[in-house]
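Problem 12. The chain below contains 226 residues. Write out its predicted structure in token notation.
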Amino acid sequence: MKKILIGAFVIILFTVGLYVAFYFGENYIPKNCVRWFDGCHQCDAEFGCTTNLCFGPKKRSYCIKFKSDILDDKSTISNDLISYSTGNLFIVTKDTKTFSYTTDQLSGMANECGSQHEADYFNKLVAKFNSSTETVYNFKYTGDTQDNGVYTVTLIPNILGYTTLDQFKKDFDICAAGGDLYPTMLNAKWLLFVNACGTGFDDGSGRPHGCDEVRKVVEPSLKLNQ
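Solution.
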């Protein structure tokens, strides 16, 4: 009788173990998951994946974020230069580069917007910003998209001490469609630019515009922290 009870107990434990394994395999999504797939897939670096996990009878694969280049997965990121809402639609990478504007570029932008400046104005402006660094946040859509799926936020130090958006736009505004650096907000330390997510062209495929999908989440919550 004792052996029968032990055998029944083992069978019950085994059954419960299988149920738990299958439940978690089908329903559990790791905290730092970037994207999941039905079936076993090799996650690739485009999605910031460093680990591929397969669970459950249907085999679900999870892409796990690179801790070194991807910001922590939170509902709102607020411990950096900027705050913004996040989620599973996109991954975020942060890069830096040298000041990218040229005198001719800024002068041409001003002419398009009808802004008047002295002949050597932009030479002096570029000289003041030339030693500065741009901080670039790339919000990359992880689904299928008909554009490049990247919404970009760029920060430049507020070296000239602009206090209003009008002052900022007078020197850096873009009046053409489809630009990459539109003046959007500022504080005492930083100037913030965003890209335009293209010109509005649709290829008729029915696929989403990934950049716009990201923008809808990020832009309403975007703030400068310092």
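Discussion. Confidence is low (pLDDT under 50) at residues 18-74. Students who got a different answer should revisit the alignment rule from Section 12.3.
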